[in-house]
Amino acid sequence: MNIIVTGASKGIGKAIAEIFSAEGHTLLLCSRNQSQLQHTAEELASRYGNKVHYHAADLSKKEEVEVFGKWCLEIGTPDILINNAGRFLPGSIYNETEGILEDMIATNLYSAYHLTRKIVPAMIANKAGHVFNICSIASVKPYSNGGSYGISKFAMLGFSKNLREELMPLNIKVTSVLPGAVYTDSWSGSGIDPTRIMEDKDIATMVLAASKLSPQACVEEILIRPQLGDL
Ligand code: NAP
Question: Cβ(160) to ligand 1 under 6 A?
Fold first, then answer.
């Protein structure tokens, strides 16, 4: 299968790319930093012997989404699209820096919206496909210091739920993934004990499992928290 993972150079995206690589699938990866992306792609290909294609792109920019999406379609019919690229900027709505909302919406929502519109028509033509949208617990629960990030993740879940309704009759599955805290670079330097929160592999394991059900079953939501609850 051809599996597209955005924001795949590290963190949750890399863990998802790794678990699908271990199953022998063809991966199509992106992130902004070309050298880190290349390093991840080469590491996975040499470890698992699968095909790992990569293309650096800033998905907060619509024109770069267009180019990345076109590149994906040229490689082959997409089977799974994982909209994972995202960024957390802390802040409070009432005093965060001007422009943060625009940045968070472009990075965490428009990226997925535009890429989905580019990729899904090929899935519809193929009468099969699966879209995973990496949302967050912050999609359903407000956080202090969440600011515009929280707004963007609520919007991402709204996007994902609407997409699920639309694609249901077209045989395309849509799964919203809502993780609580996962230890990635986003948390390094925070002083948090890595064993207090989840591993990126936990999210990847659930995504892989949801991708393997019978054609007539769709996991609509994966909501997963640290055993000790939110921080
Ligand atoms: P991470 O370790 O910082 O990795 C983010 C990935 O996305 C990197 O590959 C990054 O590479 C890429 N990326 C960032 N902005 C991009 C852009 N504009 N265009 C293309 N790629 C971009 O983050 P993570 O913690 O794994 O988070 C992944 C997703 O999970 C995000 O959507 C996040 O909101 C969500 N999430 C995370 C947690 C958590 O606790 N970690 C909890 C809930 C949800 P470049 O910087 O090179 O572009």
Answer: no
Q: For 79-99, how does the pLDDT look when each residue is reduced to its tens digit (9 = 90+)?
A: 999 999 999 999 999 999 999
Residue 166 lies in a domain: yes
b/e 60-91 (16+ beta carbons within 10 angstroms → b): bbeebbeebbeebbeeeebbbbbbbbbbbbeb
155 lies in a domain?
yes
Distance 109 CA to ligand 1 centre (A): 12
CA-to-CA separations, 223 to 41, 42, 135, 207, 219, in angstroms, rounded? 28, 31, 10, 11, 11
pLDDT tens column, 64-82? 999 999 999 999 999 999 9
Tell me if 192 is assigned to some domain.
yes
Query: What CATH number should be reported for the domain holding residue 82?
Result: 3.40.50.720
Range of the domain at 156: 2-224
pTM above 0.85, yes or no: yes
Lowest mean pLDDT segment, chosen from 28-32, 96-100, 136-140, 188-192: 188-192
Residue 209 belongs to some domain of the structure: yes
Number of structural domains (the chain) is: 1
Q: How far is the CA of 13 from the centre of ligand 1 (A)?
A: 7
Residues taking part in catalysis: 149
Whether the CB of 59 sits within 6 Å of ligand 1:
yes
Task: Establish whether residue 184 lines the binding site of ligand 1, counting it when its CB lies within 6 angstroms of any ligand atom.
Answer: yes
